[in-house]
Amino acid sequence: MADASVKELLKNLPTNWGRWGKDDELGGLNFLTPEEVARGIASIKSNKTFALSVTIGNPKGDPVWPGRSGAVKLMTQDKGSYASGKLQALPGGLEYADDYVTMYLQGSTQFDALGHTWYDNQLYNGYSADTTMQGMEKASVHPLAEHTATGHAVLLDVPRFRGKPHLDKGETITLQDLQDVAKKQGTTISKHDILLIRTGWLEVFYAQGAEKFYAPPFIEPGLVYSKELVEWFHAMEIPLLGTDTIANEITVRPTMQSELWLLTRA
Q1: Cis peptide bond upstream of 91, omega within 30
Q2: CA–CA separation, 107 vs 65, rounded Å?
Q3: What's the pTM?
Q4: Which residue has the higher pLDDT, 119 or 14?
């Protein structure tokens, strides 16, 4: 999509650029104040925990952006190292295994840095895209990691609302859909809530295999652009959006030779 089209889409829409000063690199995480952490803690009822991360180096493979390789895990030492005599036990007879992983930083559950994507040569808050050369000087994931993302979260289960195990390829989610799901669940979305959207798309990879997941054209289900959606996110001061897809919104990769992100879909 041409830059001019992106500019036109965002024309006259609200923005957080400059909202927390010219040096801000946190964006919406600024909304997650100590008071919001306390609100999240106060909502706990059952004390159950849920893992929202995926296994790195899963035997079934890693669901990554098409064309990228999954994680590669290698053992540097194990019991065989001692049995072969190549390593000697530490004092007291202590032995240990060790390994390392090489992977794309987007090769598993992850945060996108605010400077991950850009247009018109500007990152979040107006930082120049030149600051990404040989390492991100501005709007990297580091400030987000230092701040952490702790607060009150709501989960919207879209496929359950639609009576299916997962959304289909290219299936859309609109602002009205989010509101309808919340109403059906009896969920109230409040200002500063962390928004988690389940599509079930990740389950297609593990249950049906990579061939089904990557079958061309690669079109993920997800959010679709609308002026109302952007304005709602801004008015609700949503600090963070998370989904079980690669890119949250509907994304398209029509060939293995080019990467085209579909920002809008009628």
Answers
A1: no
A2: 8
A3: 0.87
A4: 14
